[in-house]
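Q&A log
Question type: sequence-to-structure
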Amino acid sequence: MKLLELSHVKKSFDGLEVLKDISLNVEEGEVVAIIGPSGSGKSTLLRCATLLEKMDEGTLKICGKSATLNKEGKTRYAGKSQLAELKSSYGLVFQNFNLFPHYSVMKNVTDAPIHVQKRDKAEVKKEAEELLKKVGLEAKGDSYPSQLSGGQQQRVAIARALAMNPRILFFDEPTSALDPEITAGILKLLRQLANENMTMVIVTHEINFARNVADRVVFMDGGVVVEEGKPEDVIDNPSSERTRAFLQKMEV
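Response status: OK
Response body:
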């Protein structure tokens, strides 16, 4: 089943076209890595896919349900209740963590399942304890974000996303604010999630990670998808000169 369907997406900011007719589908259980230079539109595409930005044109389906309606040739969004339902089906992890600073780690993880999904508090807390154990932070439930390292905060952000029992997880440069040693730990955690068949879309500059973990790599530049395919094709044997030039700069 396709968990994400983006078709003919266009997005401009102040007259500058950032996304130029992009289409992307993601199957259940698939890990898709999106790579490309800064300013290529990767993060904007992710923000459109997760309803943080409204696209100018195109259609979006999440878990088979439409977020957009095409009325008189123009993109319109579905009603609030439909969008709220769609938002509860995916998780999003940002590069700068976006934790609530005045909430403990435990409250950061449990708040949305309790108040947004209206789930049982005791059940949510038990699940949260398991998730914190999974990300190696079982002893940090009572700590606050300011007491944690960047890598620990990112682990909390991942646990918080998983607490919503999402069908698909989106990551926007999850390691760009972290040093190399801490980055390795986060990438190991993402690899573990991939092994558990979690559907993931990851915007990343970690080319080796994309090569080793992704089922499919999408290379974007200038607001378009230049090429996509298996990692061994796109990264190790790119068909486009633009892809080749980018990877050479990355010293892959």
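Response note: The chain has nine helices and twelve strands.
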